[in-house]
Amino acid sequence: MASYVTTPNRAGSEPSTVLRLEELVVKARQGDHASFEELVRMTYVDAYNLAYRLTGHEEDARDVVQDAYLRAFRGLRRFRGDAQFTTWLYRITANCASSSLGKRVRHRHDVLDDDEEIIDLSARADPAEQADRSAVRERVKAALAELPPKLRAVVVLRDVYDLSHEAIAAELGISESAAKVRLHRARRKLRERLYPMVGDEAQDTRRAV
Predict the structure, then answer these.
(1) Which domains does the chain have, with CATH numbers?
(2) Which residue among 112, 126, 189, 197 is least packed, with the fewest CB closer than 10 Å?
């Protein structure tokens, strides 16, 4: 099969975009390769961003995305539409990233701290607000990059891409309780790296990534 890494466009959440994606999925399931290529163009940026946040490396992220689209293409006929195509693609991407990270850290053991839930990061931010708090955003990104891969994966999937604990557990091959524990520990480590941050600056970490 040919490579499906094409010139990307960012997929939005507007109703017209969602409908367009659904139409393309229907055609792609019927064997229309051009429709699948259009799906790639519309979703590539978001898929790559997720892969990069999970792996922390550009080359690894490209490999993960390529693998994710190959798996999506092969499994498209089994896609029932119970969730949006983008949600399904994110889960495949997370699974591919987990496999990639597993190869890199197979012999590594992460030292985890006590549980404590702290800041909540979410996926989208208003462009004007982003400009005002770019320095904070960079600090948050740097803090995420310093997390052990297992912790970074959970906090990104939950707080950036809003996957449920159940979905995270399924994609990472861990229990739901383990996913919650890792999330709490990841948030604690983030606070340790970002602290001291008080008042409005602390609030600006929300949606910074």
Answers:
(1) 15-104 (1.10.1740.10), 127-203 (1.10.10.10)
(2) 126
CA nearest 207: which of 127, 102, 101? 127
Q: Name the H helices within the chain.
A: 15-29, 33-55, 58-75, 85-104, 127-132, 134-146, 149-155, 165-172, 176-194, 199-203
pTM > 0.85: yes or no: no
CB neighbours of 42 closer than 8 A, spacing ≥ 6? 9, 10, 11, 17, 20, 21, 24
How far, in whole angstroms, is CA 72 from its chain's centroid?
Answer: 16
Which tens digits make up the pLDDT trace of 5-47? 444 445 555 667 778 888 999 999 998 999 999 999 999 999 9
The span from the CA of 58 to the CA of 77, in Å, is: 30
Question: Is the pLDDT assigned to residue 134 strictly greater than 70?
Answer: no
Q: Counting Cβ atoms within 10 Å, is residue 123 exposed (0-12), middle (13-18) or buried (19+)?
A: middle
User: What distance in Å separates the CA atoms of residue 121 and residue 192, rounded to the nearest whole number?
Assistant: 15
- Whether residue 200 is predicted with pLDDT greater than 90 in this model: the reply is no
pLDDT tens digits along 164-174: 888 888 877 88
